Amino acid sequence: MREFGIGQSLPRTEDLRLVRGTGRYTDDIAPAGSARMYVLRSQHAFARIGGIAIDAALEVPGVLAILTGADATADGLGGFTSMVRRTGPDGQPNFEPPFAVIARDVTRYVGEPVAVIVAETLNAAKDAAELIEVDYEAQPCVADLALADAPGAPLVWEQCPGNLCVLTEVGDKSATDDAFARAAHVAQVDFRISRVAVSTMEPRTAVAEWSEADQRFTLHASIQNPHMSREQLAGVLGLPSHRIRAVALDVGGGFGLKGVPHPELALVMWAARRVGRPVRWTSERSEGFLADCHARDQIVHAELALDEEARFLGLRVRVKANFGAYLSLAGVHCALGNIGGLSGVYVLPAIHGEIRGLFTHTVPIGPYRGAGRPEASMMIERVIDVAARDLGMDPAELRRRNLIPADRMPYDTGFVFTYDSGDFPASQAKVQEISDWNGFERRRAGAWARGRLRGIGMAHVIEIAAGQLDEMGAIEVDTSGAIAVTTGMQNHGQGHETMYRQLIAEFMHVPPDKVSVRDCDTDQIPYGFGTGGSRSAVVAGFLLETLASKVIAKGKQVAAIMLEVEPDQIDYREGAVFAARDSNRSATLAEVARFAHQPMHLPPGFEGGLSHRQMTRLAGPTFPNGCHVCEVEIDPETGHLDFVGYWVSEDVGKAINPMIVKGQVHGGVVQGLGQALGEYIHYDEEGQLATGSFMDYQMPRALDMPAIGIVSSDTPSRNNPLGIKGCGEGGTVGALPAAMNAIADALGPLGITNFDMPATPQRLWRAIRDAGGMPHAMAAE
Amino acid sequence: MYPFDYHRCASAEEAKALLAELGDGRLLAGGQSLLPMMKLRFVMTGNVIDLRDCEELRGIDIGSGAVTIGAMTRHVDVASSKELATALPVLAELAGGIGDPLVRAQGTMGGSIANNDPAADYPAACLGLGATILTTAGEIAADDFFLGVFETALAEGELVTGVRYPVPAAAAYMKFRHPASRFALAGVFVARAMDGLRIAVTGAGSQGVFRWHEAEAALTADFAPEALDGAELDTSDLNSDIHADADYRGHLVRVMAARAVRKILAANR
């Protein structure tokens, strides 16, 4: 193993900076002369705006400008468009209302921007906002997905009867119908996947400057993908994208939320140009609850057909997905883009799904760790557990019987995905061992004796990672031999900087302290796809290996000139040394780099410098997978739930830094368990947000979480030379179904067959009470 | 936050005088309720009077048969007091369960009592122990002090200076936490004192902390958890929200009361 190279748990090089308060977050940037922006937001879920009176507000000292929808119309401000298009109920392309950056005549969700106040101070802007009078004419609304297509439900868009935006089918209907017709048993389940708030630790934030001299914006923002954001913003502002420089410095968590452009990014730029001053905006937590894109929110019916031997014949799902009031960049994608996960890790010959995407008077839906993957996993993994219960089988045995054997890789599921690699039976066996799956009934009996309900749940995970195959990067060696790495992928806590340093140590034998990582900045590199979809490790491994090999090849040419031998006689050796074969002549990387920057020593026409920049494209996506086991205990007297154990066997392919992989699994699992336990966005009948602060929105605390046992079951990916698969989302994808299966297993003995997330104490207590409580006979067993 | 003038004073009397002079002053003790409300612009005041320099309002005094605690004593000081752990352990335990370490490092007993949040822990201790609230104007029995949600018997310009807690023969406090805010969804304080048995309930009542007289009678007759089954509890007076309706809160009050009784019985065994 190379020093500091691949496969070692190097401490994260960015952590000292971040934990000591010396990070550079967007809100730390206060350009000279900058003003503050405050957004006045709609108080109504659905209202016509008769007028907006701003005269009194303009009198507040320090107010520089107040902008409304009328100004936006005058300036031709657009909205963000969806990256995915499907069909509507009429078979034509679906109706696509862009995500408006400010309301014009109608507001369609509570929290929608209605006016923008720019002032010398935030307090002045807030004072002015209190004096703005908006003439709302409130309309009846529909905020609950379950009611969105009810007869007579208020329409979010007149163009969409029944609020139905997308109606599409996936898979093979007739083959699936055939499978169900000859099934020996059909299991079915209905459930709801709750709506959640992403809740990044650092709120969304942006600083925009307009340079009249350069006719160009500089936007610093807490975003995951400066290049893609810039293109979207250029569209909204009606500019060519080169008129925008977008930069993301340190970002305190993204989870997909900061991969979709939000209105305030455009508003802060618009405001900066209008007032001719830099303008800053930082979301407050309560604004975040209202106006950050929410996530998940689906209603599912799933059916599984099995033969006499309990082998899967077919899967059928009907899904209703909430889009919110507008389509965000990834709203449709979250409902459909990762539906391929329905096939799970199983031999599943026929799948059919019908997906309905509906509008409601709520903030648009956006991506959140998994972005459709946890939803798809819930569908297959929940219905398997229901089938096991129906058949009186051990759910682990039912799964084992239907797993795709390792020797059939690569495996075409016949649905959407072709899996590159994986050994699912081995993975399941490992997690059964570390979780003592077979000893569970003893633990259940012990819990019953203590008056507690106990349950265990398993879920396999498989997910597409690095679906976006392309990326651009650069390696630049300076005259001291130090290396700068630039990519279009943004680090928002995952540890990219450490990973890049390990990859450079691996490929170029340069220690971490001689490697710097440049900010993700559209002026530093012409293009990039940002961070998301568990892609960075997979993409960076191949990208940096390619770049490093080009730089080393160039270095060999320079070294050959220096050492007066042929380039093919030069080896690049440990210690970052270019050595002439069969001689004692050599030059260090620093010496070669210095030489390369002195064109007077180089032959005429020889390209000086020691850098390389290019785009690479992976051969294909990867499919990180794993098997999760969750164990819960419930106090039937209060409904309090404890996660008492959690185990994961993960296959992320080759791990660049096993410690970071574990951290990613931990974080992912916690976000899945948090949703199962109590994270839950609730709008009331008026479309008002009832869970608009951490006083009502149940964020999990460390004490709510179990210790997480992780065992590696890695099989290398065949789609990239290093065999890396990615690890960002799998934790969440597995945790949601594993937790819900465990809870169902705990409640099953009481005859409770359907229990929806969130497993809050009130909901659990009521379900247990309605089932007649915990019988004394159980405790006595 | 709206702009305000900031004042500091070194004694309760000084604060009282400043309050009278300013007219619209708000007292800042630990700031764990007032400051968030100010940040959200829910509270507007021209003047904030910080009591942090009032050393005379800090401290724990263990007397015979009673413990007196200064109003500016922080939760962390109550929770970690060795003397209190012996003299009145139930109070140290209660203070150690308030909020989180950041809240306990700033929040004060007097601030909590004067604010009378309907889900706060200290009001349950005061009412459950039959404490006496000491103020700049004299003394008020806990039974007369807590009048309703964020409402107390304090007169205009009157400050809490401390609380005198009689030491009971036995006491226990059990609370079920609100899943989001971690305040008490239902907190029940049970005390067996010389002058009788007292049960105080916080977090559940629509009018804030209250004594559950029916349960007091039932437990006085028979100090056993089963005795509570027959005690009436009018759920129409209980709070109802998305986290717990009155039905569930009522149930939790019974469960927490029974657990407090069991805890007392176990300690005496």
TrEMBL record, chain A:
The keyword Plastid does not apply. Gene3D superfamilies: Aldehyde oxidase/xanthine dehydrogenase, a/b hammerhead, Aldehyde oxidase/xanthine dehydrogenase, molybdopterin binding domain. SUPFAM superfamilies: CO dehydrogenase molybdoprotein N-domain-like, Molybdenum cofactor-binding domain. This is Carbon-monoxide dehydrogenase large subunit. One of its GO terms (molecular function) is iron ion binding. Keywords: Molybdenum, Oxidoreductase. It comes from the Bacteria. Pfam families: Ald_Xan_dh_C, MoCoBD_1, MoCoBD_2. InterPro entries: Ald_Oxase/Xan_DH_a/b, Ald_Oxase/Xan_DH_a/b_sf, Ald_Oxase/xanthine_DH-like, AldOxase/xan_DH_MoCoBD1, AldOxase/xan_DH_MoCoBD2, AldOxase/xan_DH_Mopterin-bd_sf. Residues 20-140 form the Aldehyde oxidase/xanthine dehydrogenase a/b hammerhead domain.
Automatic annotation (TrEMBL), chain B:
Keywords: FAD, Flavoprotein, Oxidoreductase. Residues 1-170 form the FAD-binding PCMH-type domain. It holds the Pfam family FAD_binding_5. The keyword Flavoprotein applies. One of its GO terms (molecular function) is oxidoreductase activity. InterPro entries: CO_DH_flav_C, CO_DH_flav_C_dom_sf, Diverse_Substr_Oxidored, FAD-bd_PCMH, FAD-bd_PCMH-like_sf, FAD-bd_PCMH_sub1, FAD-bd_PCMH_sub2, Mopterin_DH_FAD-bd. PANTHER family: XANTHINE DEHYDROGENASE SUBUNIT C-RELATED (PTHR42659). This is Carbon-monoxide dehydrogenase medium subunit.
